[in-house]
Amino acid sequence: MRNDEKNIDRFMLVLSSPSGAGKTALANKLLSVDNSFVLSVSVTTRTPRDGEVEGKDYFFVDDEEFSLMIKNNQLLEYATVFSNQYGTKSELVKQTIENGKNVIFDIDWQGVRQLKENVKTSSQLVTVFVLPPSISELNRRLKSRALDSEETLKKRMFEAEKEISHWVDYDYVIVNDDFERCFQDLYSIVQAEKLKKIRQKYLKKFTKYTL
Ligand code: 5GP
Predict the structure, then answer these.
(1) Which residues contact 33 (CB under 8 A, 6 or more apart)?
(2) Ligand 1 atom at shortest distance from the alpha carbon of 23
(3) Residue of the nearest CA to atom 21 in ligand 1?
């Protein structure tokens, strides 16, 4: 059996959105209610924000370490976002899949493009774009988070509008107008993906009944 066939029942769920649209909260809720998922903790050159924990939110590295990881082919994808570098550790993803878990990614559209090229079986990748209810609501949410300076906030709004233009490249689009309802949408996607016949290994028992 080829390795990608062996792991066909696992999948890689990607959530992308402009910052402030709520994808991190959605990912955390999914992780808390469905233990088939493990978060892909990214590597970044950005400085940790208050409360962020090494190895849980990100692996924080300097530019030199990040370049070395690229050089040594240790990253499944990487991109520059808001002048900082972000990347996905290949080994972590591989290990998670081999341990029988699904992987959830919180990455941007540039990373999704690379994952599409690097993943052997396209059915293993499920991509979801989370839209905010409106641009003005996104602005309000980013301001109320008060994580960034005024200048960074402006930059984030500019980047957010750029990010939104990529929704069209995703398999699913959900709107985060009401968190619980939006989570139900995400959960329905997950349930439907798990029920795809390609992911249900036990169906093999029924192959003799196929016409
Ligand atoms: P933040 O600095 O707010 O945590 O993340 C900024 C942006 O970088 C978010 O849109 C997030 O999805 C994206 N990001 C985080 N980790 C990765 C990664 O490993 N790869 C890529 N391509 N984007 C990432």
Answers:
(1) 187
(2) 12
(3) 107
15-26 pLDDT, tens digit each: 999 877 889 999
How do residues 46-56 score in pLDDT, each as one tens digit? 999 999 999 99
| Global pTM value | 0.90
Q: Find the 1 Cα to ligand 1 centroid distance in Å.
A: 35
Q: Is residue 108 in contact with ligand 1, taking CB distance under 6 Å?
A: yes
CB contact burial 58-70 (16+ within 10 A = b; e otherwise): bbbbeeeebeebe
CA within 13 Å, CB half, 33: 12
CA triplet 84, 161, 32: central angle to 5 degrees? 70
Handedness of CA 104, 16, 115, 189 (dihedral sign): positive
Task: Please report the sign of the dihedral spanned by the C-alpha atoms of residue 153, residue 155, residue 158, residue 161.
Answer: negative
Distance CA 107, CA 86 (A): 8
Tokens, residue 143: 């301001």
Domains and CATH numbers, the chain: 5-40+101-209 (3.40.50.300)
